[in-house]
Amino acid sequence: MPRTRQPIELIQAKGKKHLTKEEIAERQASELKVDLKNINIPGYLTKKQKEEFQEIASKLLYIGIMTELDEDCLARYIISKHTYLSLTKKLNKKEIKNDIDQLDRIMTLQDKSFKQCRACANDLGLTITSRCKLILPKTPENPKENKFAKFVI
Fold it and tell me: Which Pfam families does this entry report, sorted A to Z (predicted)?
């Protein structure tokens, strides 16, 4: 099964440069370049959700991993998070704990909203493991010393 295609900058940063200059130029030309600045808050979010959208979007823009294509995914994350939290509050009420059918139904909905929330969080880089996959390795600032340089006059 093939792996997902990685940006050429990431491949070069990892040190896997087994590509010719022509292949690198071709890949750079074919990579999609998206405007990072034009983020619009979806109108279907509530006021509280819009504030959370703005807060998370500003953080993701600051680190440079969000584009306008991610607006809907972030909105789905926020909606599923709020749904999960409201269902959790319902489960904590004493009246529901006596009704097994209603308890089962709410727990199923809670599980579905949690899975959707987690999937969106992974897509956006909001989890630790997904951020580790997004971080570019830093190239060493000091080049390696040539051990034979001391013999050159």
Answer: Terminase_4
Query: Tokens in use for 25?
Result: 């130029």
Amino acid at 71: E
Rounded Cα gap, residues 130 and 121, in angstroms? 8
pTM: 0.67
Going 31 to 36 to 42 to 47, the CA torsion angle's sign is positive
Residue 70 — very low, low, confident or very high, per pLDDT cuts 50/70/90? confident
CA 90-93-97 angle, to 5 degrees, is 100
Helix (H) or strand (E) holding 21: helix 21-30
134 Cβ contact partners less than 8 Å away, ≥ 6 residues apart = 65, 125
DSSP string, 51-93: HHHHHHHHHHHHTT---GGGHHHHHHHHHHHHHHHHHHHHHTS
pLDDT score recorded for residue 45: 94
